[in-house]
């Protein structure tokens, strides 16, 4: 099996990504809408979107809160261009950054809220906890974090895919970098990681099949 470098994987699929998500991902016609419903309807809310892709969640968020100010971070330059095309009337509200969100300095007490949708199911527990700590620090007092993602149905499923990812990387002599392979975690593990990062409350607010929305508060 070949693993594709993450930015190349998504750049190569930028044109067809939205159609793929809607046609092939169970619940996609609902979870972007349900995610947007959690965004407060206050003026000039400052929101960080991690792994924003082509902006499917932003399409729905702008319907809920048209004045929201968004910083979007994604590895795929081609996908970020799609956001600019779709929301050319909101370019003064959108700051798009081509980078990986693990390394990028997202600041301290900057954002009212942070959201990630279908992006974090590629990483280890250790990587996620480190990122969650950064998210926690970046939030203002009483800030919120929304994670909408693919989850493992049980611990056996999670363990198997982490082992497979390690095995394939060893075979291909990949020692570092971001490569596309799905390693979803159970919802129980996700919640514990968020608590470990410092969040005071974490709630599962929605689930359809193997997609869950978690709402964490600082």
TrEMBL record:
PROSITE patterns from the UniProt entry: SAM_OMT_II
Superkingdom of the source species: Bacteria
GO terms of molecular function: methyltransferase activity
Domain Methyltransferase: start-end pairs: 48-143
Residues annotated as transmembrane: none
Record's keyword terms, sorted: Methyltransferase, Transferase
Biological process (GO), any one: methylation
Signal peptide: none
Pfam families listed in its UniProt record: Methyltransf_25 (PF13649)
Keyword flag Transferase: yes
Protein name in the entry: tRNA (Cmo5U34)-methyltransferase
Organism (species): Clostridium acidisoli DSM 12555
